[in-house]
Amino acid sequence: MDAFFYVVNFLVTVVAATAVFAFWVANRKRIAAETVGRAEEQALKILHDAEREAEAKKKEALLEAKEQAHQIALDADHLLRGRRQEVATLEQSLAERTRSLADRLSTCDRAEKDLRIREQSLADREKSTAAAAARYEQLVADQQRELQRVAGLTSDEAKELLLRQMEADARRDAANLVKRLEAEAREQAAARARQIVTEAIQRSAAEHAIETTVSVVDLPSDDLKGRIIGREGRNIRALEVATGVELIVDDTPGAIILSSFDPYRREIARQAIERLIADGRIHPARIEEVVDKVKAEMEEAVRREGEGAAFELGLYDMHPEIYRLMGRLKYRTSYGQNVLNHSKEVAFLAGVMAREVGLDAHVAVRAAFIHDIGKAIDRDLQGTHLELGIDFLRKHGESEAVVAAMAAHHMDIDWPSLEAMIVQAADAISAARPGARRDILESYVKRLEKLEGIADSFNGVSKAFALQAGREIRILVESEKITDEEAVWLSKDIARRIENELEYPGQIKVTVIRETRAVEFAR
Q1: How many domains does the chain have?
Q2: Residues 377 and 468 in one domain
Q3: Pair (131, 62) in one structural domain
Q4: Tens-place pLDDT, residues 226-271
């Protein structure tokens, strides 16, 4: 019985041990499976994190590469702008040197021509001297023969011959006396004239400033540059087309540069841009409206300018159209000298000199003040400023004495009166003052005027504007007269005319603009 219990206990122990061992093995497998699962899950997590990190680093590297590429593009653009500016500077310097060489060559040609004239004059004088010497020798020989003949004459005949000789000597002495008196009178007149001119100059204290071809518009902030340029540059193009002025929006902080050889256009553009900035509405339609309004106001402003200048000189009875054209001369230059200021100065000088010599000062002042009035319209009409001015003054009631004195200020005609001489002298004094004029600017302006004149001469051209210091010309054509195909040929024809008729450095870009507008009003 004990053995049976012993066996049973042994079997139970074995079974229990086996069960414990099986449980332990099963538990170990479960733990191992869980460990493997966690390991696989952690490995997947690590793999996903690695992939995300790699993707992030890839995006960061790509972004950094794009930023570097953008920075490189900006640097290249700045470098290109700098190179373009250098090229423009070099072109301008080359043009100035070319003009200087041309002036020197012209001076050398004139000097050579003067030298040839002097050589010819010297040769003529030598011939004249030789002829005079021959005549003198002949006279001496004739006198000797005459003395020999007189020696055999009677006393009455000798007395008569002596009287004739004394009469001839007296006439010669009288002629020499008259010549000497005339020379003294001329010297005194020249000294008196110099004194009068000097006093007139001393009593006229005029300031001189050479006009430039650019104006600067200050901006409250650089953010406005983008608004002035507009989307895809439409605002700046509208401004340039409406005003005929080139807008230079560069790296200059807080400013825009307006470039044009015509001061009147620059002033219109400056006022229009300032009003647009103050108003805040900047778009093509608003730009055209503001420019048209400024042009209308400028016409009234120039009339007041001309009227004020005339009143300063005591001229109160002129035609209103004369005041308007004289006011426009405020925005016209001659060799860099402001024409309105020049006209006022010439009038003052003419008045002083006319009163000193007892001439009609009112005629002299009036003629001197309006002597260059034709320059206000010579860009719009055919003819010289002198011809246009004479026709305009006669149509608007100026007296013939004033017109005649004005017409002779370039000495194109004989002096019609002493007042005309006074006007010409005053004009020469004003123009010859040191610092009053500059030839280079005037030749540059004349080249731009010739460039616009070539374009305006073609049929169908509405407006033409020279931009970028004459390196580009923009031409607006009438859409109802010129088709798109004809616009292409028009640009080629104008370019060919420019090549044949103008001398210029580099190249000139010819841009023909044709646009069609349909306007209607909703009522």
Answers
A1: 4
A2: no
A3: no
A4: 887 888 888 888 888 888 888 887 766 778 888 877 788 888 888 8
